[in-house]
Amino acid sequence: MQIKRRNFFKLAAVGAGSVVISPRPTRAERKKAGDSFACLVDTSRCIGCRKCEQACNEINNLPEPARRFDDLTVFDSARRPDARRFTVVNRYHSGRIDDAGLLVADYVKIQCMHCLDPSCASACVTGALSKHDNGAVHYDVSKCIGCRYCMMACPFEIPAYEYHNPLTPRVMKCNFCEEQFTRQHKAPACATICPTEAITFGKRTTLLQLAKKRLAKYPARYEQHIYGEHEAGGTAWLYLARVPFKKLGFLTLPSNPLPRLSELIQHSLFSYLWSPALLFALLGGIMYRNRAKNDSGEGHKQSGGVS
Ligand code: SF4
Ligand code: SF4
Ligand code: SF4
Question: Is the pTM of this model over 0.90?
Answer without folding.
Answer: no
